UniProtKB/TrEMBL annotation:
Domain YchJ-like middle NTF2-like: 27-83, 99-141
InterPro entries with a match to the protein in the record: NTF2-like_dom_sf, SEC_C_motif, YchJ-like_M
Pfam families (alphabetical): SEC-C (PF02810), YchJ_M-like (PF17775)
Protein name (database record): Zinc chelation protein SecC
Gene3D superfamilies: 3.10.450.50
Coiled-coil features, chain-numbered ranges: none
Spans through the membrane: none
PANTHER family assigned: ADENYLATE CYCLASE-ASSOCIATED CAP C-TERMINAL DOMAIN-CONTAINING PROTEIN (PTHR33747:SF1), UPF0225 PROTEIN SCO1677 (PTHR33747)
Species for this entry: Alteromonas stellipolaris
Amino acid sequence: MRCYCCSNLPFSSCCEPFLKGQAKPQTAAQLMRSRFSAYASKQFEYVLATYTKERQPELSVDELTANAANATWFALEVGETENVSLIAQAEGVAEVATQNNEGATDTVDFTAYYFENKNLYQLHETSNFIVEDGQWRYHDGILHDDCGKVKYGRNLPCLCGSGKKFKQCCATKSR
């Protein structure tokens, strides 16, 4: 199965090890992708556990579940990040030990797509991450003005990047 985060990698070698606690995200972008996969697969314990300690007391698994009850998350586009080490990793440079830099910060710009009540929506956010106890954690984010209900042509390429037409791919999840 292809990963929920639209990385074109199998779920088993992309986000699943993070969700199962078998590995820890090494970058803020990996954490962001795994959080999307957790929302898509309704694993809200993981979502809560990846918030900063400051934010966790304000939330609960029940609240996260209720807020996402009617949403079907299906596609993710990851934009820019601030962290230069991600560029080095993408260019094949030896892994940068960002995870061990306590207090390190990063931002990740992303757009997530979901269906709610048979309507297509997008969430466009610039998220703030921090290394806490040697692990990347989500703190908060700034929503962009283009969030909300969107129209998307059924014959356009699917937002998930599968290469199929939208109507033959993820549009079927709105039913």
